[in-house]
């Protein structure tokens, strides 16, 4: 059996490959794929097999009957459903044994900004007839690394999230959970909500930053329009600024506050809290 990891040149995909090797999976049993295979050299140097797989032009011959395929969601917002559909069709044609997809928590929400394309992809996978597992990943804690830098520089965290709560998780722990699912049995038909066991507000985030930085850090709760102007003034493009504002509005509305135990169960331990993660950034 070969474990195929797509987008293995990206942050999550590469971590999944590394976690598979840590779990004792033989390097030769892992096929790391990416659009640019030159970016996979560090994995190839460890004995991992590599191949080109482009979501826009999928070569089905890269996949084989019996493979376990991890489809890491595309970063091309607005193109994801089409791109993912290409991979699913190739997987079906090849006769892979199982497809594991990195979806998003609260995927059934009609208002969560990132949910619709993930929902469509889940439906495509279910319709393929292939055995599947959905990893409904929570919000990355690492999304707040820029905010930590701003807090260090200005003593402030700005957002349009009000008192909304976020159940964030470390990317590395999501990768570890994926490696567990890929390298063990009993996950067919499972949809795991991979979120933390606690949810925090931005005011609490500012307090954690303050503790780590040893300085006062205030939370500036801004109206959405004001925050959008701040982001544009900082040099972000309209699309990125709009996405970040929409995400904060989802947080304000409670869309990312869900907590649960699925991640802890797969890891065999409690996931790290925001207070445990932030000190590693200092």
TrEMBL record:
It comes from the Bacteria. Residues 2-230 form the NmrA-like domain. It holds the Pfam family NmrA. CDD domains: TMR_SDR_a. It is an enzyme of class 1 (oxidoreductase). Keywords: Oxidoreductase. Coiled coil: none annotated. Its EC number is 1.6.5.2. GO terms for molecular function: NAD(P)H dehydrogenase (quinone) activity. This is NAD(P)H dehydrogenase (Quinone). It comes from Nocardioides zeae.
């Amino acid at each position: 059996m070969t474990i195929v990891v797509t987008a293995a040149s990206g942050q999550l995909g590469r971590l999944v490959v590394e976690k598979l090797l840590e779990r004792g999976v033989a390097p030769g049993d892992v096929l790391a794929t990416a659009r640019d295979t030159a970016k996979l050299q560090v994995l190839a140097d460890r004995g991992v097999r590599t191949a080109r797989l482009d979501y826009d032009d999928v070569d089905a011959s890269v996949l084989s009957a019996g493979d376990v395929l991890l489809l890491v969601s595309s970063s091309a917002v607005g193109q994801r459903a089409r791109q993912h559909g290409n991979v699913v069709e190739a997987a079906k044609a090849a006769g892979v044994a199982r497809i594991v997809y990195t979806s998003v928590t609260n995927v059934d929400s009609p208002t969560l900004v990132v949910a619709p394309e993930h929902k469509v992809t889940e439906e495509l996978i279910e319709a393929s007839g292939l055995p599947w597992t959905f990893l409904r990943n929570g919000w990355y804690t690492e999304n707040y690394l820029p905010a930590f830098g701003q807090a260090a520089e200005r003593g402030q965290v700005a957002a349009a999230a009000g008192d909304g709560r976020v159940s964030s998780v470390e990317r590395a722990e999501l990768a570890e959970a994926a490696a567990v699912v890929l390298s063990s049995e009993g996950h067919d038909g499972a949809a795991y909500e991979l979120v933390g066991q606690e949810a925090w507000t931005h005011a609490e985030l500012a307090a954690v930053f303050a503790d780590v930085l040893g300085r006062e850090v205030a939370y500036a709760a801004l109206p959405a329009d004001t925050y959008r102007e701040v982001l544009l003034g900082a040099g972000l493009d309209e699309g990125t600024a709009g996405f970040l504002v929409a995400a904060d509005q989802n947080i304000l509305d409670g869309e990312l506050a869900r907590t649960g135990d699925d991640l802890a169960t797969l890891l065999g331990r409690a996931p790290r809290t925001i207070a445990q993660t932030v000190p590693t950034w200092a």
